[in-house]
């Protein structure tokens, strides 16, 4: 997971009390300012931005097996043998039972019986996904098929991403405020207001990867990006000497 500050340039200004007034939000995007608050104390207003990304943490595949036989028993038995092999291979690959689900459908077509089964598997380890699917493609031959993996983010991962990007933006805003106070010989106090003004989310789809079906390109195209911008106001404690900030 990567994180880095955005719009980190800032400008500071000290103004006489009679001329000070709260700055509009759109004025604060790329600068910092020291103003007099409503209670008469001096404040430093800053904005901070941050952006982070995370690859998908889950992938889902569907393994399908089908058999058409003259009798119902033969059709069911043929599919069952393949299902047992699939389940065995998944267990040996470390896939837990809770990440495996199955559905079966039995049909009669003219003079034959058809048994069809689908096994849905969720992977959190993409290397295991490749190894298991490659083995099954070889062993099942024409009697089975495996869908391309569908990569996605769990709600828990997305929520953590949103929290982390907000904390990064707040940390960036505080560092800017501290640098401004240090520059003008002041000491940064406690936070008075912290407001998340904007949060953006998007996926990293690229034209070059849309035409390619490799797993790495699929992961890259479904990587989640989140950017946050915050406004923060901090109290100024006053001039301090002989102290490093």
UniProtKB/TrEMBL annotation:
GO CC field? cytoplasm; nucleus
Q: What InterPro entries does UniProt report for this protein, alphabetically?
A: IRAK1BP1 (IPR030312), SIMPL/DUF541 (IPR007497)
BP GO annotations: immune response; positive regulation of canonical NF-kappaB signal transduction
Organism domain of life: Eukaryota
UniProt keyword list:
Cytoplasm, Nucleus
Subcellular locations according to the entry: Cytoplasm; Nucleus
Pfam families, alphabetized: SIMPL
Q: Which family does it belong to?
A: Belongs to the IRAK1BP1 family.
- Name it: Interleukin-1 receptor-associated kinase 1-binding protein 1
Source organism of this protein record: Hymenochirus boettgeri
Organism phylogeny:
Eukaryota, Metazoa, Chordata, Craniata, Vertebrata
């Amino acid at each position: 997971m990567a994180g880095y500050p955005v719009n980190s340039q800032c400008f500071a200004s000290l103004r006489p009390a009679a001329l000070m007034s709260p700055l509009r939000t759109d004025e604060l995007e790329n600068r910092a300012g020291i103003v007099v608050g409503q209670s008469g104390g001096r404040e430093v207003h800053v904005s901070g931005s941050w952006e982070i990304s995370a690859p998908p943490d889950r992938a889902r595949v569907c393994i399908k097996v089908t058999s058409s036989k003259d009798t119902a028993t033969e059709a069911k038995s043929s599919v069952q043998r393949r299902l047992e092999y699939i389940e065995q291979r998944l267990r040996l690959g470390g896939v837990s039972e809770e990440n495996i689900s199955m559905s079966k459908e039995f049909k009669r077509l003219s003079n034959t019986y058809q048994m069809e089964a689908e096994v849905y598997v969720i992977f959190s380890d993409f290397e295991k996904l490749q190894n298991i699917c490659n083995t099954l493609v070889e062993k099942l031959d024409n009697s089975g098929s495996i869908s391309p993996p569908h990569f996605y983010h769990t709600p828990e991962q997305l929520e953590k991403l949103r929290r982390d990007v907000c904390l990064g933006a707040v940390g960036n805003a505080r560092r800017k405020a501290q640098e401004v106070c240090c520059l003008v010989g002041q000491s940064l106090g406690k936070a008075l207001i912290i407001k998340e003004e904007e949060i953006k989310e998007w996926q990293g789809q690229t034209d070059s990867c849309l035409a390619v079906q490799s797993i790495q390109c699929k992961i890259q195209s479904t990587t989640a990006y989140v950017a946050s911008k915050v406004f923060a106001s901090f109290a100024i404690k006053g001039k301090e000497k002989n102290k490093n900030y």
